[in-house]
Amino acid sequence: MVSRCLACGGKTSQKRIRTENWWGEEFTLVENVPAWVCAQCGEAYFDAEVCLALDQLRQNPPEVKASLQVPVYAYPEAS
Ligand SMILES: [Zn+2]
User: Fold this and answer.
1) What fold does the segment set 1-72 form as a domain?
2) CB 3.0-4.6 Å disulfide test: which of 43, 45, 51, 75 passes with 38?
3) Which among 29, 12, 11 has a CA at the least distance from the CA of 20?
4) pTM summary value
């Protein structure tokens, strides 16, 4: 467990969050992931077994639950 935020020293509490992952070229979301979340800055930390479980999910993904369309934008060129 991570009881103090490594970034700002704030207190963390255990929550279920949605993680955003790049699996190679594929952008994926995993919902309901247990994490320690800082009350001050929102930084999230994962226990070792959660990291392991996410790794296994990546290697052997279950059935896709839902798909989202994600807009892609270009950063404006300086004129
Ligand atoms: Zn923090």
Assistant:
1) Ubiquitin-like (UB roll) (3.10.20)
2) 43
3) 29
4) 0.83
